[in-house]
Amino acid sequence: MIGRLIFGLDDVEQDSESLEIEFEPYKMYVLSNDTKTDGAAAILYPGLLEKLASNMQSNIFILPSSEHETLLTKDTGEISARDWQSVVIQANQQLFSQDILSDEVYCYDYQEHMLKMVTDPEQTKELRAQLQQMCCCVDATGANTQEYEEEDYGEEQ
């Protein structure tokens, strides 16, 4: 299941009661801004992640999905950052390179009030190569329709 969280900066600046959302453990939430353009930057709204994590009483995995939105999910301890990273990389393979933010997974630590990268860029390269070998996109004729090459992304962002 996927829920949608749309915030304007003014929404976040109001008191935290306006952000009371009942989070389900295995649900993903799409975070964007009220214009849905360049909405991934909403994770940087002052106090937003802290308020959401406080509401969840949990750490939050942050999965960059495009420059327009970010996926959030409660860290239940059952799905690792590496597993979520596979999801991010596979989703990024479907995007135009200019819309991709990162293949890394981030976590907002509820107790430390800190945003951290929780995947390793070196291991990301290995995982990207493994996934490339496992699933190559082909059309109905069997022709390769998409190459997932490092130069499409440049260095890790």
Largest sheet: 6 strands, mixed
- Our measurement of the CA-to-CA distance between the termini, rounded to an integer number of angstroms, reads 29 Å
Determine the structural class based on helices, strands and strand pairing.
alpha+beta
Q: What would the principal axes of the Cα set say about the shape?
A: globular
Helix count, per DSSP? 4
Radius of gyration: 16 Å
The domain tally reads 1
Order of helices and strands: EHEHEEHEEH
Number of beta-strand segments: 6
In which order are the strands of the major sheet placed? 1-2-4-3-5-6
Low-confidence parts, pLDDT < 50 over ≥5 residues? Answer: 12-16, 138-143, 148-152
Strand coverage percent:
15-25%
Question: What's the overall average pLDDT, rounded?
Answer: 78
Q: Percent of residues in helical segments?
A: 25-40%
Task: Describe the structure in your own words.
- The protein has helices spanning 9-13, 48-56, 81-92, 121-134, and strands spanning 2-7, 28-33, 60-66, 69-74, 106-109, 114-117.
- The chain has one domain.
- It starts with a strand and ends in a 23-residue tail after the last helix.
- Helix 3 (81-92) packs across helix 4.
- The protein has a six-stranded mixed sheet with strand order 1-2-4-3-5-6, with helices on both faces.
- It is 25% helix and 21% strand.
- The protein has 157 residues and is an alpha+beta fold.
- Mean pLDDT is 78; it is low at 12-16, 138-143 and 148-152.
